[in-house]
Design goal:
The protein is α/β, with parallel strands linked by helices and about 325 residues long. The chain contains eleven helices and 14 strands. It has one domain: TIM Barrel, CATH 3.20.20.70.
């Protein structure tokens, strides 16, 4: 098992397989998009599978496929299937915006995807267009319906943004009345890829909780799984649950069990880290699996105590505006 210098066991890898996305969400990137990673700088399918195999041999037993939007990558379902077959992997999951996902749901189910995080910041079609700068609300709702019909657990991720989707908080909570979904409200983070857009951080996890509690006074706290990023709650009698993720105030860092790989092969020990070891370059230079393991083990020893330390060590004023698409969510 990989263990950092703080004694935290690392068993969870978030693999971003592409940086591109078919939405332009205001909290993630500029309207015109970003300067995307060049094709030859992206890892190939074979490189990703090999790296994942090295990680599972080191004790990583959970992998989440992220992006950008994973299904923007050509033949992404075949890549997911290959990763799902790795020895030692007990949990493979996916984060998606749902626009291209529905046709692949039977295959996702077949290759062992039991949980999908679905990005959905509003239940209003017009606000969806305003936030994402794209049409596609109905496609996302069809994906949600299909995931539930196939018995795949769904976590709906909603970024809370002042003057944009506050009126959606209660309708999203009400989804959990009848549906077996977890709705997770996320503090907005200053990772929008655009220096010209101010991020409002007034809606922190405490304010979100207070707002929900005002509408549902009997809201109860439930147990938070180990290394969870979310505070868990439930309205008595409702089928699903509610979560609040303190993404900016970062109160979940203490028992972090995650590492990240960007589409270009950077190993990042923390979401808020601005640098990383380039494992793709190590692969292409001819490193053996054992040499890669040693590089990874050494890197894990530099995992920061928390997100504030990571940001202080590695980020400058411009990097704070990097896009979530380049970080891997």
């Amino acid at each position: 098992m990989l263990t950092d210098k703080f004694g935290r066991q690392i068993n969870y890898l978030r693999l971003a397989i592409v940086d591109r996305c078919n939405l332009r969400c205001t909290y993630c990137m500029p309207e015109e998009g970003l300067t995307w990673i060049k094709q030859n700088e992206l890892m190939t399918d074979e490189e990703m599978v090999r790296l994942c195999s090295v990680f599972t041999s080191l004790g990583i037993d959970k992998i989440r496929i992220t992006g950008g939007e994973p299904f923007v990558r050509k033949n992404s379902i075949e890549l997911i299937e290959k990763i799902s077959q790795l020895e030692g992997l007990t949990d493979i999951s996916l984060t998606t915006n749902g626009l291209l996902t529905e046709p692949y749901i039977p295959q996702l189910k077949k290759c062992g995807i039991r949980s999908v995080n679905l990005s959905l910041d509003t239940l209003d079609e017009e606000r969806f267009f305003t936030i994402t700068r794209r049409k596609g609300f109905n496609k996302v709702m069809k994906t949600l319906d299909s995931l539930l019909r196939h018995g795949i657990r769904v976590k709906i991720n909603a970024v809370v943004m002042e003057k944009q989707n506050i009126e959606d908080i209660i309708p999203l909570v009400l989804l959990t009345r009848e549906l077996p979904v977890d709705v997770r409200f996320i503090e907005e983070m200053p990772f929008n890829g655009n220096k010209d857009i101010e991020t409002s951080l007034s809606w922190n996890h405490q304010k979100i909780y207070t707002y929900i509690r005002e509408h549902f006074p009997d809201l109860i706290k439930t147990e938070d799984p180990k290394s969870s990023t979310s505070y868990h709650y439930k309205v008595p009698g409702f089928t699903g649950e509610v979560g609040i993720i303190a993404a900016y105030t970062r109160s979940f860092c203490g028992d972090c069990n995650r590492i990240r790989i960007t589409p270009a092969g950077l190993l990042r020990n923390c979401l808020y880290e601005g640098a990383g070891i380039n494992l793709k370059d190590e692969l292409r230079s001819g490193k053996t699996d054992e040499e890669l393991k040693n590089i990874i083990i050494s890197s894990i020893q530099h995992k920061p105590k928390d997100g504030w330390e990571a940001e202080k060590q590695t980020m400058n004023a411009s990097q704070i505006h990097q896009s979530m698409a380049t970080i891997g969510g």
